[in-house]
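Fig. S4 source data, part A: sequence.
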Amino acid sequence: MNLTAAPSSTSTTPLPASWVEKLLHKMLLSYGKKFTDQWGATSTDELVAHWGQELAGYQPIEIQRGLKALETRDWPPTLPEFKKLCRKPLDPTVAYYEAVAGVQARQVGKYGEWSHPAIYWAAMPLSHDLREQTYSQVKPRWEAALTKQLELGEWAEIPQPMIALAAPGKTKTSREEAAQRLRDLGAAAVVKDGAGRDAKRWARKILEQEAAGEPILPIQARFAREALDIKPEAP
């Protein structure tokens, strides 16, 4: 079964006219008379407006995919043909294995390889099941989640991963690692050493924020306690 990413009915913002103009100009340069014979009778303004509206919701990476595909075509595509070049049908089984690899990469702090943003957004709510269950076990839910995402037609940018947790069996993180990871969390301002300053001020500040009920990440509190050599309370 192949799943096709279709434009969403809620994606009404046209593709910028400048993008469409560059797209059509590239086709003109690539196909010459073939292009003018196909589109010459149409007003340029009408052509730009129509393509812009019909490509509403398409992402830059998808437009680039469509342009790349033109290199192997002898004739300029119609609008429906160009849409198919931009959004290839997704095989849910292939997408599943990509999602499993991507989820595993995210678990250790890596970005992962995502050929389509819909795969990422379908995978995240099922990340535990993708790691722990077989394809046959997760298949109905995976295909439903992927179909739902593809029907959206537009997707938020894939975020950078959270920092990786300590590897299994590694219960201690060096202070240098803690400092670097806190920098990654945006805590650089309280990690720097300075003459005459408490070198562990950053850790004390985090624990003060925790005690005051301010929102902090659990891993920040963990690193702060390790830096201050505060042992976790026994259960």
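Fig. S4 source data, part B ends here. The first helix runs from residue 17 to 31.
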